[in-house]
Specification:
Keywords: DNA-binding. By secondary structure, the protein is mostly helical. Helices cover 79% and strands 0% of the residues. 22% of the residues are buried.
Length: 213
């Protein structure tokens, strides 16, 4: 009985430690990338022993892959919770565009993590069945919206859901990852409330003009 009583607190302690490590690693990798992040700094931020990081996650590379997987799972899970199948196709597509924009704004570390992984030619994502499986859901979801729109005579036929997904991501991603250089080039505060609202409306209009008859 004593072993049973002590096991649950130990399990909870282990889970709490892993969560702290993952949260700390997310911040460090987002700030410094895989190459710049140090396990010592992650351990200090997580208030954990460096040995525990290697015990739970194996290596810095493996920890980065786990953080990256969690980041993709988070956005894909949030997309599924939008329940777009219950909406008019136009409303569903607009909600997805709005969601993507807001998610990028609320989770800037996601963008920097993606940037970092691209620098490494996606070598971690290539090994991740988790990301591959969950990402297919987004393509299926958008394909379903397009099919419903075509059947209702709202959308053009033959639109590739993969290309549309890429465009929805790109029109928000580029704006935000290039906001500093863009502010100089265009002499505009791209992160002001007015500029952000204007950009969101432009994104929505762009996608609708691509798909609507």
């Amino acid at each position: 009985m004593l072993a049973t009583k002590t096991r649950k607190p130990r399990i909870r302690d282990a889970e709490a430690t892993q969560k702290r490590i993952l949260a700390a690693a997310k911040q460090e990798f987002a700030k410094k990338g895989l190459g710049g992040a140090r396990v010592d700094d992650i351990a200090e931020r997580a208030k954990a022993n460096k040995r525990m990081i290697y015990h739970y996650f194996g290596s810095k590379e493996d920890l980065f892959q786990r953080v990256l997987e969690d980041a993709y799972v988070d956005i894909r899970t949030a997309e599924q919770k939008l329940e777009l199948d219950h909406l008019d196709p136009k409303d569903a597509l607009e909600r997805l565009v709005r969601f993507t924009w807001k998610y990028y704004l609320d989770n800037p570390e996601f963008l920097t993590m993606v940037n970092s992984e691209n620098l490494h030619k996606a070598r971690h994502l290539k090994k991740s069945k988790v990301v591959q499986d969950i990402s297919r859901r987004l393509v299926t979801m958008v394909d379903t919206i397009l099919e419903r729109g075509v059947k209702q005579g709202l959308f053009r036929e033959g639109i590739d859901p993969v290309q549309l997904n890429i465009t929805i991501a790109a029109i928000g991603y580029y704006y935000l990852t290039n906001r500093f250089t863009g502010a100089i080039i265009y002499e505009l505060d791209l992160m002001s409330r007015q500029a952000l609202d204007t950009r969101l409306q432009f994104n929505i209009d762009t996608i609708m003009r691509l798909v609507c008859k």
